[in-house]
Amino acid sequence: MPLFEQVLKNNPEKVKLVFKNFPLRNHQYAAKAAMGALAADVQGKFWEFHDRLFADFNHINDQKIKDIARELGYKTAEFEKQMADPGILSRIRQDVQDGTAAGVRGTPTVFINGKQLRSRTLKGFQDLIDKELEKIEKTPN
């Protein structure tokens, strides 16, 4: 997340970060990880959960998801109940539909103002942000 944080810091009040879930079908625990992150979001701990998950993303499994929830102060039964909320599954399905419609094929995929970012470097981010901001500034109100 440090790159995103830098982009936001460099562009205060100009850039908004929107996260969409796109659990890959070939990853056995991707959907559960997304459900866990959205359950954590109920308590305002989405990014904490997300960052812990992806700190060791090659080893995500049911136990790791439960362990992260406990580390963040959840009781297992409460967390599992939140993960099972139909609204969470609905949100993930909508995110996947949106991503598919936008041409997402893998993760992470980044868009800036609807344009897919090809260069995921700080300079790549800033170049596309500047280009999009310039277009907006030239557009008459």
From TrEMBL:
Molecular functions (GO terms): oxidoreductase activity
Entry keyword annotation includes Oxidoreductase: yes
Keywords recorded for this protein, A-Z: Disulfide bond, Oxidoreductase, Redox-active center, Signal
Record-linked SUPFAM superfamilies: Thioredoxin-like
Domain Thioredoxin-like fold: 12-131
Protein family (similarity comment): Belongs to the thioredoxin family. DsbA subfamily.
Protein name (Swiss-Prot/TrEMBL): Thioredoxin domain-containing protein
Organism: Candidatus Desulfatibia vada
